[in-house]
Amino acid sequence: MSNYHLEGFSKLSRSERFEKLLQLGCLTQKDIQLLQGPYPIPVELADNFIENVIGYFPMPFGVATHFCIDNKDYIIPMVVEETSIIAAASKTAKWIKAKGKISTESLGSLSIGQIQISKVTDFNTFKNILEKNKLQLIEQANTKVAHGLVARGGGVVNLEIRKVNAMAVVHVLVDTCEAMGANIINQVCEFLKTPIEQLTSEKVSMCILTNLVDTKLVKAKVQLKEINPELGKKIEEASRFAEEDPYRAATNNKGVLNGIDPILLATGNDWRAVEAGIHSYASASGSYSSIT
């Protein structure tokens, strides 16, 4: 385990923070030059990303310190406008590091695309046909569309057929490796539309990924030793409150996302997709609840 000496980091000047992060190998001189600005990004470049461009909107960029996750130290980039989020995260991480540990576990690696048949004629017949041709469809998708993922150890791995009222829904399970994979999942689903229609004589209505990815969960666990029993009891009571009351759960989950969204923004990921997935998962039981 590396040992970052970051005591008093929040009291350093901006230039001193850059120097410290440079010494630790967290930033390069090129990174520092970019972060110091002015930002040499022509506004015309934004036209390649969004529509009706009028400029850029800058956000504060900071780092959370003292995190030790799975016995490895991290300095975590965070882009956020709200006061105290980074300070609270760093202070809590320091406390956990002194009193216990943070461990994580991956519970799956598959993302999901959906192919919808809005009015299936005979669901059982439809399902049987696809089950018989599943391996062929997977091979075609991997050969024609997802070959890049296959080369990196991923690709389409399974098809699952669900009945939702009058609809049939095919779930395309894809290992997207290190990518979020929205574009490739949609491409795979669009590719499979034609052979599914030809095999089943049913009409596909929609091909789209889902942001409820319960096949790609990650669990994080905090273990603390020798804390005040009264404090432990209060944490337990607050946790139960969020589990049983959706009004409290909404604010509890917002607090969790205070730590997640800034990392997604700092790393250029789709924070809206993650938010949608988290809130959908929090409602999976039929009632909105805590994700902690």
Q: Can you offer a commentary on this structure?
A:
The structure is a single chain. This protein has 3 domains: 9-104, 3-hydroxy-3-methylglutaryl-coenzyme A Reductase, Chain A, domain 2; 110-209, Hydroxymethylglutaryl-CoA reductase, class I/II, NAD/NADP-binding domain (Alpha-Beta Plaits); 228-282, no CATH class. The strands form 3 sheets. A 4-stranded antiparallel beta sheet has the order 5-6-4-7. Strands 1-2 form a two-stranded antiparallel sheet. Strands 3-8 form a two-stranded antiparallel sheet. With 292 residues, it is of the alpha+beta class. α4 (123-144) packs across α6 (182-200) and α8 runs antiparallel to α9. It has helices spanning 14-23, 29-36, 85-99, 123-144, 147-151, 182-200, 229-244, 246-266, 271-282, and strands spanning 61-69, 72-79, 100-106, 110-117, 155-164, 167-175, 206-209, 218-224. The two termini are 27 Å apart.
Spatial gap, N to C terminus: 27 Å
The SSE order reads HHEEHEEHHEEHEEHHH
Question: Could you give me the name of the CATH homologous superfamily of the largest domain?
Answer: Hydroxymethylglutaryl-CoA reductase, class I/II, NAD/NADP-binding domain
> What characteristic shape results from the CA principal axes?
globular
Main sheet record: 4 strands, antiparallel
Please tell me the CATH architecture of the largest domain by its name: 2-Layer Sandwich
